[in-house]
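Q: Joint fold for the lines below.
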Amino acid sequence: DTAVSQTPKYLVTQMGNDKSIKCEQNLGHDTMYWYKQDSKKFLKIMFSYNNKELIINETVPNRFSPKSPDKAHLNLHINSLELGDSAVYFCASRAQGREQYFGPGTRLTVT
Amino acid sequence: KQEVTQIPAALSVPEGENLVLNCSFTDSAIYNLQWFRQDPGKGLTSLLLIQSSQREQTSGRLNASLDKSSGRSTLYIAASQPGDSATYLCAVGVDYKLSFGAGTTVTVRA
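A: Joint structure:
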């Protein structure tokens, strides 16, 4: 069974469109994250939710809006996509004080 | 702001040689440190987690040490194999957040 899953795996879209990426974890973790990995492979945190509450927002443009309907899900909606949003987006989850588990990533290409 | 540096950026070794990957961080007030492996086009696989109160962790051929006072961690991989070829990422945990290094890309030649 996949611990942290993301859909879709690939997303190709045009500038100006709105898109969503979904994430689900079946580990019973309280904390979930979104990370962005850019073309130079550098990973940077975007958001963190703990028990459905936003606890970290790393100066991400407000075109990005996370939503956590329950502890097992953290979705990412992106409005008005720009070329610079092209990247791989990773979802992750963690139990308190324990290691983070990552999803397989969603490769977003904006043309 | 926590800065995490990994040296070297790339490493190529013959099969059987031991690997030594270095990670340094600027702020020693950390909760834990985690080492990951990333294969091309794939997600991150957690290798080892060291809590701030620990000095090292071991799993099979992998051993990671942590020296909080000097802001350093080292990942040792014994008797490397071609299957160990990947990018290895160090991430420092403070509260709910992980700060990542840029990674060391390892190639093990058969």
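Q: Anything notable?
A: Chain A has a mean pLDDT of 93. The interface with chain B takes residues 31, 33, 40-45, 48, 50, 55-56, 90, 92, 97-105 of chain A (CB under 8 Å).
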